[in-house]
Amino acid sequence: MLEAIPLLSLLNAAPFLGFFAVFLFDDRHAKRVALFFAGLTAALALMVLAGFDPAGAPFQFVEKVPWITALGLSYHKGIDGISLWFVMLTVFLTPVAMMAGFAVKERTRLFMGLFLLLEAMILGVFTTLDLFLFYVFFEGVLIPMFFIIGLWGGEQRFYAAMKFFLYTFLGSVLMLLAVFVMILKTGSGDMTAMMGFAFPKELALFLWMGFFASFAIKTPMWPFHTWLPLAHVQAPTAGSVILAALLLKMGGYGFIRISLQMLPQASQVFAPLMIILSLVAIIYASLVALAQVDMKKLVAYSSVAHMGFMTLGIFSGTREGLEGAMMVMISHALVSAALFLGVGVLYERTHTRQIEAYGGVAQVMPHFAALMMVFFLAALGLPGTSGFVGEFLSLQGAWLYDGFVAFIAALGVILSASYMLWLYKRVFFGAVEKPLVRGLTDLGAREYVMLVPLMLFVLGMGLYPSFVRDVFAPSLMRVMEVWG
Amino acid sequence: MSAFFLIDVLAVFLPLLGAAGAWFCGRRFGDRWAVMFSSIAVLLAALLSCVIFYQVAFEGAARAHHLLRWLDSGSLQANWAIRLDALSALMVLVVNIVSAMVHFYSFGYMKDDKSVPRFMAYLSLFTFFMLMLVTAQDLVQLFFGWEGVGLASYLLIGFYSRKESANQAAMKAFIVNRVGDFGFLLGIFGCYQLFGSLAFDDMNQIVPSFYHFAGREWPAGAVIAALFFMGAMGKSAQIGLHTWLPDAMEGPTPVSALIHAATMVTAGVFMLSRLSPLFEQAPVVLACITIIGALTALAGALMALVQFDIKRVIAYSTMSQLGYMVFAAGVSAYAVSMFHLVTHAFFKALLFLGAGCVIHAVAGVQDMRKMGGLCRVMPWTCGLMWIGALSLAGLGIEGLGGLSGFYSKDMILEAAFACGTGFGFFAYGTGLFVAFLTAFYSGRMLFMTFYGSAASAARHAHEAPLSMLLPLVPLALGALFAGWGMHGWFHSSQEESSLRLYLPLFFALSGFALSWYFYIRRPSLPAKFVQAVAYPYNIIVAKFYFDRLYNRIFVRALLRLGQLLWHRGDEQVIDRFGPDGVAVLARAAGARLRLLQSGYLYHYAACILLGVFLLISWVLWQRVGL
């Protein structure tokens, strides 16, 4: 019965519809309408998850309708175990971000609408199997994000929004070129067909570099990361959540789906470079995070370091590393979302993100402090949290690639403990000395609803990661077959 | 096998239940219930672990239960499991018993604290992590427990979170331990590569293999063993990674007794025993372990000599005793090192809790110079502390018997002597000398605290309440008789009677005698003595400069590097030549191009003409050329 319903199209259409529907209501009702559509999307995604058979066909829920036949382009949708989890993350985190956005007072309707549009675009990226449409969605994500930063951001929002846009747009121009060459070469935009296609070796190298430009900026890899801290600092909390949790993952997804699956030989050629960049990212970003005085920037730089573990795992060329990279991405989505929400919780109350403005928050907000402790521990990769699983497997992959690489990368484990615990100490511990802190109130109901499910997922994934892993493992095996 | 399932699971998970209960009960029903709930949970676990120990050790019912899949990636498998063999059953027993006593003790000690439920929850949570550590079946669960106890230790050291020094100490403990864990993690990766498995049972067969690095070949087994030992050094406070342990005394005293004396710090020693097949294949690493252990024993004892804080004396003493355990493992006497671990757990927990009674009695003062003469007001505490100190000093007569510490320390020294290598002999000599120092600082501590004239803080002292004294009794019994009761299992060497066997006793007695002379007979002597040996004294007081060195080369340098990379790297290089550079370039190009748009018609006409001319000439040239 399920096969008859174009579930993926519905899933993708629901937030689009919501985007338009929100404008039919006034600001007061917009929040509820937006949440309704986000919930509807989540329900559809749960149906997809329930109907997905990990042992079944590589791509499931496939829909294909010819579109521009001259170029072989079609409306082509389908998911495998890899994209399924990104879809789940998207539908789960979008309502969370929306709730964080309830604090926004002006132009609520547009704000909520843009988040639905953003969700639709992201879902498009993860569910499409046509390379041209993939490109369209991949770039389409920029538009709502650009407005979210530019309209509701901080003081430097225009500079941040432009930098974000230009940086990522620069990458996409090169990607567009690669996309067209690949479509012309294979005669269609069918991504599944490209996975087995043997591109000429030299051409493959150029194509790989085209995609690299886009994915490396999105991930972001060192040295293409400087847009990220700025964008985060200027973005509103809800924007930061989506940016860190979902937009960055498009880079990793792209590396697996396109770089590894379609251009495996070229990936092998570039693997040493990627490993080196990953190592630099881990150490460099961790050190810079150590020096930060702004909470959001610190978390942003820690994201760069974590994404270093992700690319390290992917390009280690091992199964352990690849599965670790998936785990890093899923875990980081949850943990970074929670960390940015946490910063937002404090910012909403005090309007400052400077670390030195705080101290002793645990005394006045004990529940908040306890919850955040879990996320901090997950960020530093404590066993039993989701952060450990991915980091461990990625590092294991790195060790199998080369012991020395693992040696360098594992230094990041010491550094992450240092910057996370130091941040926690400066913000939460100590005596309550500042009047700003004395007036704080502990979490409200809305904030619990945002944070507690995240905590449960972080712990659940840390203690029993198999429920996530068993779904994506067969798909990753297929990736390994062409690339390992 | 599954007949034991329920007992085993309960023995491990009851403390977790206790932690949850304390956390939620306390909030709803008050402190008393939080304490009762968690204490009873751990006490039940302790009783069950007695049963388990009996079954495993005397009936040979070693067993393992698989609970749940954990990590799973291709051939990489790690599971949640409970493995109970002689080694882990012994650890479960010790951990649960000491923990139960500390739980009950905390009731009295923490009475006036505001966050008792939180404290009890952390304590029980620690116990659970420690049990997971010792009952692990593979390296990853061991690591889970390993970092888990580190977390509990972090939370408890920083329990008084208003105090800056406590927060600093907590963070330092976690990060220094992470340095060790860095080695541990890499060791795990190496093991997986070498054995294709992470389970302890698969690590017995050795595959000769080599790593190529820096143009040389390194034996894989030795590299992995060295990495694991790095982990053990962090947790067991071996010299180099020991700096966190004395600072950890910022935590409440029951915490010091349970975590930083009896159980957590011995995890490194446990790990050496658990992975002994691996270490046995790497004689070079064993030699290093022996040396480092002996140096730790010496350095710890030396630093204990110069402390005035009663807790720090015991903390450095712990470091010193851990050195004994580690060098015992270094000379392959793993069983003996475990034996010392057990006896040490009893007498050191006793000493710490006794010190807690003292601190409680003198209203939080920890400086021994402000105490003195406490024996008269708190005779019970004094007596119990004497038992602990004598056991620590290893008092006993060869052939007749003695306190617990005597048996285990004697065996360690004998094992080091019997080992026959130069390293073993070095450890033996150092161990003997440290035995002397141990007796000296123990005597010093007791004499300064309990005897002599009462100083400022001691005036209003009172004996500890029964709720704090009673939990000390089982520990005292352990400190008295555990060695006598258990030495048969560990006994190894042949009966040989020579004067050399009386050397430890001689050193211990002379240590006590000398401290008596220094602190009771001639109290003015220590100050004069210190003046006479000012130079080495100052080095020891400065803790051999480890903290200062680390602060300079790691903490400050890394922070500065971070700032440099941020401002110079991100802002002045990447941004300047990257996005901002492109933007500036684009703007400059735009400014140039704008000049072309002059608005004069004849400019445009000239351009058009030029263009047409070029186009036509190109077409013509193409035609002609072809």
Task: Give the C-alpha Rg of chain B.
Answer: 31 Å
Q: End-to-end span of chain B in angstroms?
A: 93 Å
Largest sheet of chain A: 2 strands, antiparallel
**Sheet having the most strands of chain B:** 2 strands, antiparallel
- Structural category of chain B is mainly alpha
Largest interface: which pair? A-B, 58 and 54 residues
Report the β-strand fraction of chain B as a percent range: 5-15%
Beta content of chain A comes to under 5%
Outline type of chain A: globular
User: What's the total number of strands of chain B?
Assistant: 6
| Average pLDDT for all residues of chain B | 89
Which blocks of ≥5 consecutive residues of chain B have pLDDT under 50?
Answer: none
Number of helices of chain A: 21
- Please tally the helical runs of chain B, counting DSSP H or I stretches of 4 or more residues: 26
Mind sketching the topology for me?
The complex is a heterodimer of chains A (484) and B (626).
Chain A: H1 7-22, H2 27-51, E1 60-68, E2 73-79, H3 81-100, H4 108-127, H5 131-140, H6 142-152, H7 157-186, H8 191-195, H9 201-218, H10 227-234, H11 237-262, H12 264-290, H13 295-315, H14 319-350, H15 361-364, H16 366-379, H17 386-401, H18 403-428, H19 435-438, H20 445-463, H21 466-483
Antiparallel strand pairs in A: 1-2
Helix pairs in contact in A: 1-2, 1-4, 2-3, 2-4, 3-4, 3-11, 3-14, 3-20, 3-21, 4-5, 4-6, 5-7, 6-7, 7-9, 7-10, 9-11, 9-12, 10-13, 11-12, 11-13, 11-14, 12-13, 12-18, 13-14, 13-17, 13-18, 14-16, 14-17, 14-20, 14-21, 16-18, 16-20, 17-18, 17-20
Chain B: H1 5-29, H2 31-58, E1 63-73, E2 76-84, H3 86-109, H4 116-134, H5 139-157, H6 164-195, E3 210-213, E4 216-219, H7 220-235, H8 244-247, H9 253-262, H10 267-274, H11 276-280, H12 283-305, H13 310-330, H14 334-361, H15 374-377, H16 379-393, E5 396-397, E6 401-402, H17 404-419, H18 422-450, H19 466-469, H20 472-490, H21 503-521, H22 525-532, H23 534-541, H24 546-577, H25 579-596, H26 601-625
Antiparallel strand pairs in B: 1-2, 3-4, 5-6
Helix pairs in contact in B: 1-2, 1-4, 2-3, 2-4, 3-4, 3-9, 3-14, 4-5, 5-6, 6-7, 7-10, 7-12, 9-14, 10-13, 10-14, 12-13, 12-18, 13-14, 13-17, 13-18, 14-16, 14-17, 14-20, 16-18, 16-20, 17-18, 17-20, 18-21, 24-25
